[in-house]
Design brief:
With 379 residues, this protein is α+β, with helices and mostly antiparallel strands. It has 2 domains: 3-198 and 373-377, 2-Layer Sandwich (Ribosomal Protein S5, domain 2); 199-369, Alpha-Beta Plaits (2-Layer Sandwich), CATH 3.30.70. Helix content is 39%, strand content 24%. The protein contains 11 helices and 12 strands. Strands 1, 2, 3, 4, 5, 6, 7 and 12 form an 8-stranded mixed sheet that branches. A 4-stranded antiparallel sheet has the order 9-10-8-11. It binds adenosine-5'-diphosphate (ADP) and magnesium ion. Residues 9-57 form the Galactokinase N-terminal domain.
Length: 379
């Protein structure tokens, strides 16, 4: 839908013109899974797919929300009544952002917001973070809030999901949507929130990256996340460390020996080796050896499948099929239990690999992608 059609869609819903429109992307995580809440390293990049918001302020204290992607029409809330746990359905994501901004002392009142998105919803590509970040950017810019960095904006969005939506997520997805730049992967060291934009130009090297959405989301995904996070915190506590990030890669065996419980050993081994894989990928990209990241991605998948145990049969099938058909590397991306896998292939093998994946899992939705821009104002 063009910008003009998007503006008309807002008018059709709210009967007046929007004051502006913003866009925030979904993301793929190249490497560094379940490491963000362990104070570790991640390396996502923004998808060209994004969620848009057309917005106009209101002076009557109402927050009115509409999404082209959801049934049920306009959701109307009173800004003064917003409170954690009180909002149902998709509207809790933008409501949470507004509540959190106000809690942080930003004087933001009512608004009409109309959303649409090209990010597959529930596909492990962070449509939820795109929705949060586009809301936060639109409301802060429209209300003239200054002095809030993109990283701070992402932290507010994470906090809104932790507190208001009730999901104990890390900060990767929101940071990716807010801070990524076109043509780059974002290396984020979550401890200290140090960012590096890492050039990631697949086409120049004759490579393609396929995103394969399995279109499954297993039901236990939400509860499992909190248990995994608690397990990691318990392992770090047992080791007397602030976070699993503090286990050095060359000290892993010693750390494993001091953990009493097989599950905690598995979780620890994943987080420590995964942090190491992020550093390996970073070094390879900086050395111009993009092809060589393939085996590191595949090793990351094995670790998520066997040690962290967050893969599922559909993700394993995509990864195994792609590798058997000649892919350079493949892994699940995102939290797991469904969602998407990424596959690195030579340009010349793209069609054959995609065909093999589709034959193995006919419901799959696949596309080749490149790093797109982070969140920005459209007009
Ligand atoms: P993912 O972030 O992997 O796409 P999640 O389950 O974390 O999956 O987030 C999906 C939820 O985010 C949806 O169920 C809905 O509540 C909300 N959401 C995402 N995109 C939109 C959209 N375009 N319009 C309305 N709600 C959306
Ligand atoms: Mg999400």
């Amino acid at each position: 839908m063009t910008d003009a059609a998007f503006e008309i869609a807002f008018k059709n819903v709210f009967g007046r013109a929007p004051e502006g429109a913003w866009s925030a992307p979904g993301r793929v995580n190249l490497i560094g899974e379940h490491t963000d809440y362990n104070d570790g390293h991640v390396m996502p990049f923004a998808l060209p797919h994004a969620t848009r918001a057309a917005v106009a302020r209101r002076d009557d204290g109402l927050l009115r929300l509409h999404s082209a992607d959801m049934d049920g029409g306009v959701v109307e809330l009173r800004v003064a009544d917003l409170a954690p746990g009180t909002t149902e359905g998709w509207a809790r994501y933008p409501a949470a952002v507004l509540w959190t901004l106000r809690q942080a002392g930003h004087d933001i009142g009512g608004a009409d917001l109309h959303f649409d998105s090209s990010v597959p919803v529930g596909g492990g590509l962070s449509s939820s973070a795109a929705l949060q970040v586009v809301t936060a950017l639109a409301l802060t810019e429209l209300h003239g809030v200054t002095g809030l960095s993109r990283q701070e904006l992402a932290l507010l969005c994470q906090s809104s999901e932790n507190t208001y939506v009730g999901a104990p997520v890390g900060v990767m997805d929101q940071t990716a949507s807010a801070c990524c730049t076109e043509g780059h992967a974002l290396h984020l060291d979550v401890r200290g929130l140090v960012q590096h934009q890492v050039p990631f130009d697949l086409a120049a090297e004759g490579l393609r990256l396929l995103v394969c959405d399995t279109r499954v989301k297993h039901a236990h995904a939400d509860g499992a996340y909190g248990k995994l996070r608690a397990g990691c915190e318990s392992a770090a506590g047992t080791l007397g460390l602030p976070a699993l990030r503090d286990v050095a890669f060359d000290q892993l065996d010693a750390a494993l020996e001091s953990l009493p419980d097989e599950r905690l050993r598995r979780l620890t081994r994943h987080v420590v080796t995964e942090n190491h894989r992020v550093e390996e990928v970073l070094a390879l990209l900086r050395a111009g050896r993009t092809r060589d990241i393939g085996p590191v991605l595949t090793a990351g998948h094995a670790s998520l499948r066997d040690d962290f145990q967050v893969s599922c049969p559909e993700l394993d099938l995509v990864v195994d099929t792609a590798l058997a058909a000649g892919a350079l590397g493949a892994r699940m991306t995102g939290g797991g239990f469904g969602g998407s896998a990424i596959v690195l292939v030579e340009e010349s093998d793209e069609a054959a690999v995609a065909a093999a994946v589709e034959a193995a899992l006919p419901q799959v939705r696949q596309f080749a992608t490149v790093p797109g821009p982070g969140a920005h104002r459209l007009w």
